[in-house]
Design a protein that fits this description.
single chain; Creatine Amidinohydrolase, Chain A, domain 1; 3 domains; six-stranded mixed sheet; 18 helices; disordered N terminus
């Protein structure tokens, strides 16, 4: 939306005289740019003999969030979401994305000629199904094999074999079209002290190799960036809000090689790695290294992260052991040192968000506050925490109908002005020396409808039911998801995403293998929830054109009693931010749900009140009903 324009004007493209508005003209110009780029891409495809060209979101490591250098899909489509794949052919183009981005994608693709394929909606084909139906015998599918995971490349091989489709995976067609492409990422890399990590590099290497050998392999090709950062106790800044550095590693009993841009290593990091026997080679030499390996090695390579291009190199002369990276599970189970730092950081982060909510509620209607200035104020509060490094993702501050877009992001050129009515959804987090946070609160700014209060109450009830879960070890998130979703399902509603995900430790805000989701999806691994795993708890309701509600805490799984039935488990809460009682209608809560709500609110007051000013403390006492 244009800056300063009320939301009621947001959808207007033409004035009353019929003239196209300024906003409409900008949109038309952007669409013309996209159409021009697609025309050039089709010309390059024709020259290379490519009939269909696929452009995913990923970088060379299949990362969820990527550096600007890798935003090729966005360059050709204008779609800015973090997940989606563009497919282009001579007569058309399609964009596949998941339910988090349906509303956003529909708006951003409007006028580009690109068709939106809503993944997992009834009757919508997956991309490989679409290709299988539409490609003709002997045609060619092109893609940059460095940005497509091996699992996807192999799936396409199998799916399209019947039609003898050729895969041309050594061409990045954007190279000659994207003339002002950003530079390849090369941010500084620094080392974390063992007082923060709780484990040395030597310990982590030893544990990793033991698990590699148990899987029947003698070496490991590690390509996942956050796993690499964890393993070597280093952090970088090559992806916005994700403290990772472009790198690969090859591990065996004979040697450990880290492929990274040597120029980016701080002296202390380089010295530390050398002292631990880690050989450092230039990032772009990994291909030559793998080609020169003695024939007959058994190399574990995770097909979800290893690129199709590297997989093809390995499989020519080596046996590829297709197992998960052992580092993923080792990293997901936080050690006691990490957990102690996380508790401290989450408390400080919760204080900052609580102060923000107080500021917002006491100033709404008195001063102009926009989605952008609200996010800026919250960031200012976080920056006052001594351990603060960066945001863990760009803050989502969505007012009114904007909150219905799960990953909405206001900009200085497009934002809503907040009013003393409706709700503001704020999903935010920070990177700290001591933890990575992720928290969402939907804040009532003034009168809301009975329907919205009912939706808000259901979301809060689901979040609290998950908070108080008890289960026997062996459950995955699919066993528990119903606890959060049940109150929403009872209203005939759902949310098109999982309920929870793991969170990194001074790392990516999204981490696996643990998760909370109800849907079984082929190829998407499930993980038993282990003691020490952290996980978000974030049910929601999203009504297009009206409102969005999400309430999110982070929890850690812990062992409970153990008896003849097995090892019972529960969650320990890390996030202590009040739930907005103005959104709650208690007649929709069971007695147990009420007890959960008031118990949580009391604990919020007990933990947060000592860090507040007197006026903030009095407000929190009323807000949490701790009087």
């Amino acid at each position: 939306m244009q800056a300063g324009v009320d939301m009621s004007d947001h959808k207007m493209r033409r004035s009353r005289t019929g003239e196209t508005s300024w906003e409409g003209r900008v949109q038309d110009m952007e669409n013309a740019v996209i159409c021009g780029r697609l025309t050039k891409l089709r010309e390059r495809m024709q020259a290379e003999g490519i009939d269909y060209y696929m452009i995913p979101t990923a970088d060379f490591h299949n990362s969820e969030y990527v550096n600007d250098y890798f935003k090729v899909r966005e360059f050709f489509s204008h779609f800015t979401g973090s997940n989606g794949t563009l497919l282009v052919w001579q007569e058309g183009a399609g964009l596949w994305t998941d339910g988090r981005y349906f509303i956003q994608a529909e708006k951003e693709l409007q006028g580009t000629g690109i068709t939106l394929f809503r993944m997992q909606d009834e009757g919508v084909p997956d991309m490989d199904e679409f290709l299988s139906r539409n490609m003709k015998q002997g045609q060619t599918l092109g893609f940059d094999g460095r940005v497509v995971p091996a699992s996807e490349g192999k799936k396409l091989e199998k799916k399209l074999a019947r039609k003898e489709v050729k895969l041309l995976f050594e061409k990045d067609l954007a190279e000659t079209i994207w003339t002002d492409r950003p530079a390849f990422p090369a941010g500084k890399v620094w080392i974390l002290d063992e007082a923060l990590t709780g484990k040395s590099v030597e310990e982590k290497l030893g544990e990793t190799l033991e698990r590699v050998e148990k899987e029947g392999a003698d070496s490991l090709l590690l390509t996942k960036l956050d796993d690499l950062m964890w393993l070597f106790n280093i952090r970088g800044c090559d992806v916005e809000c994700n403290p990772v550095a472009m790198s690969y590693a090859y591990l065996s009993r004979e040697e450990t090689v880290l492929f990274i841009q040597k120029a980016v290593l701080e002296d202390a990091a380089a010295a530390s790695l050398a002292a631990r026997g880690v050989k450092v080679e230039e990032y772009d030499t990994v291909t030559d290294y793998l080609k020169a390996l003695p024939e007959g090695r058994r190399v574990l390579a995770d097909q979800r992260q290893c690129s199709y291009a590297l997989y093809r190199i390995l499989s020519e002369r080596q046996t590829v052991v297709e197992k998960k990276n052992p580092t993923e599970l080792l990293k997901a189970v936080k050690n006691p040192v990490e957990l102690a730092h996380m508790e401290d950081i989450y408390l400080k982060d919760s204080v900052a968000l609580t102060k923000f909510i107080y500021w917002l509620k006491t100033n709404i209607g008195k001063i102009e506050i926009t989605e952008v200035t609200a996010a800026d104020h919250l960031e200012m509060l976080r920056r006052q925490i001594p351990e603060f490094l960066d945001l863990s993702f760009p803050t989502i501050a969505g007012y009114g109908e904007n909150a219905a877009m799960m990953h909405y992001e206001a900009t200085p050129d497009s934002f809503a002005v907040l009013k003393p009515e409706g709700m503001l959804l704020v999903d935010s987090g920070g990177q700290y020396l001591g933890g990575t946070t992720d928290v969402t609160r939907t804040i009532v700014l003034g009168p809301v409808s009975d329907e919205i209060r009912r939706h808000y109450t259901a979301v809060a009830a689901g979040m609290l039911q998950m908070t108080n879960a008890r289960w026997i070890h062996g459950c995955t998130g699919r066993n528990l998801d119903i606890l959060a979703r049940q109150p929403v399902w009872e209203l005939g509603l759902d949310y098109k995403c999982g309920t929870g995900h793991g969170v990194g430790y001074i790392l990516n805000v999204h981490e696996g293998p643990q998760g909370l989701r109800w849907r079984y999806a082929e190829g998407v691994p499930e993980a038993v929830i282990e003691a020490g795993m952290d996980i978000t708890n974030e049910p929601g309701v999203y009504v297009e054109g009206s409102h969005g509600i999400r309430i999110e805490n982070v929890m850690v799984a812990e062992n409970d009693v153990k008896n003849e039935y097995g090892q019972f488990m529960h969650f320990k809460t890390l996030t202590w931010v009040p739930i907005d009682m103005e959104g709650i209608d208690e007649k929709y809560l069971t007695q147990t749900q009420k007890e959960y709500l008031y118990a949580y609110q009391r604990q919020v007051y007990e933990r947060i009140a000592p860090f507040l000013e007197e006026e903030e403390r009095e407000w929190l006492k009323k807000e949490t009903r701790a009087e």
